[in-house]
Amino acid sequence: MSTVLKAAAAYLVILFAMRLIGRRTASQQAPFDMVVLFLFGGMTTAAILGEDRSFTAAMTGVFTVGLMHVLVSWLKLRSVLIERIVDGTPIVVYDGGRWAEDAMRKLRMQEADIRTAMRQGGMTDEKAMRYAVVERDGTISIIPAEDG
Q: Which residues form the YetF-like N-terminal transmembrane domain (predicted)?
């Protein structure tokens, strides 16, 4: 039972920590970001299993984390509040020539991140961009300006 409780608590702690870290997706992560994720995994495994390195304890931990994920997904379907807490909401960081500096600071994003997404979308001129939105999963959507 101890493994189940520790795995459930670890799931919630890691979920909270990931929300604090921010919205970078795997494709946008720098090596620095990947180090944090690997450390989370190692520390969590040690904390959940402790001295019990048995196959049974490991599988109990795996199934508990899996069931926690299913539970949180189910709760997100039934509650907009839970969905917003777990996944966040899209955030506009560029609106018709103006950078939302406060929002970008909270997301720990730079103009260079948005410009990269703009170029990846085939735009070379910032004036061609109407909106830039950081989506819930960390991807950046670029909405082009309408031609006159």
A: 2-74
